[in-house]
Amino acid sequence: MNFADALRTARLVAIIRGTDADASFRTVMTLAEAGVSLIEVSLTGRDALHVIRRARAELGTDAWLGAGTVLTADDARRAAEAGANLTVTPGLGAGLDTSVRLGLPVLAGVLTPSEVIAANAAGATALKLFPASVGGPDYLKALRAPFPDAPFVPVGGVDAAATRAYLAAGAVAVGVGSPLVGDAADGGDLAALRTRAADFLSVCGG
């Protein structure tokens, strides 16, 4: 299954940004075991590339494991070398361009119509509507009017209630950080993480 289809099937991308590399790794594995099939490890987290390498070795080659906050060409190259098979960017730029050249699917950050057009032209696989909290589900509805087939993935301030609203407004998936991960990637409770994962999977139809 390609990344675009995986997004439409799973409808949930977990975003991990931890202060503890071991805890971040355990968070990846716990989410995967809970059934979350699309996981992003932000490069702004501690030892993120090490977390990606370690998780890739455990999850195997087929799992969707991405690097997030990919800003530069070097970020994209290092993410690919670490085993990321997708990248996520907060906006347009070298991170997107280099990822596309490397053959990696990209969830590219956009907010405005002009950015949607530019991201599509650059080869983005899907569009991270970020920060989605700026306009909420109503803004997504407005943006879908000129781009009815665009694969939007709202990210930023997305809790369970917002997830329902964004999916109802036509998002193909949502990206969720702290409302899902909580403090797990900082050494927090993995049992609580499993409970939250089950709740979000239920909302997303997983």
Automatic annotation (TrEMBL):
Keywords: Carbohydrate metabolism, Lyase. Transmembrane segments: none annotated. Pathway: Carbohydrate acid metabolism. CDD domains: KDPG_aldolase. Coiled coil: none annotated. It comes from the Bacteria. InterPro entries: Aldlse_KDPG_KHG (IPR000887), Aldolase_TIM (IPR013785), KDPG/KHG_AS_2 (IPR031338). Homotrimer. Belongs to the KHG/KDPG aldolase family. This is Bifunctional 4-hydroxy-2-oxoglutarate aldolase/2-dehydro-3-deoxy-phosphogluconate aldolase. It comes from Streptomyces chrestomyceticus.
